[in-house]
Amino acid sequence: MESLIQITDKAIQQIQNIAKTDNPDGKKGLRLAVTGGGCSGLSYKIEFSDQKEKDNVLTFGDVKVLIDPKSVIYLKGIVLDFKDGLNGKGFSFDNPNAKNTCGCGESFSI
Question: Which residues pair with 56 in a beta bridge?
Answer without folding.
Answer: 67
